[in-house]
Amino acid sequence: MAEKTFTLEELSQFDGENGHPAYVAVDGVVYDLSNIPAWAGGKHHGLTAGKDHAEAILKAPHGKSVLAKLPVVGKLV
């Protein structure tokens, strides 16, 4: 199966609200946060799912180290 690609507009639909999955992009890779309790409802420490958070993750205490534990669902184009 071909890898799914997302535009920013398409990614915005995956906001974790109203039963939608919670996806975020970092460095062009789209991750699924739907099963991460800290992202319940698509929100986490003032951030919302459905967006590109490449800059925000650099400011987080955990940095990019958490990304290896997340399912990859596609690429941001």
Automatic annotation (TrEMBL):
Q: Which Pfam families match?
A: Cyt-b5
Per UniProt, residues of the Cytochrome b5 heme-binding domain are 6-77
**Gene3D superfamilies per UniProt:** Cytochrome b5-like heme/steroid binding domain
Name used for this protein in its record = Cytochrome b5
What is the organism field in this record? Secundilactobacillus oryzae JCM 18671
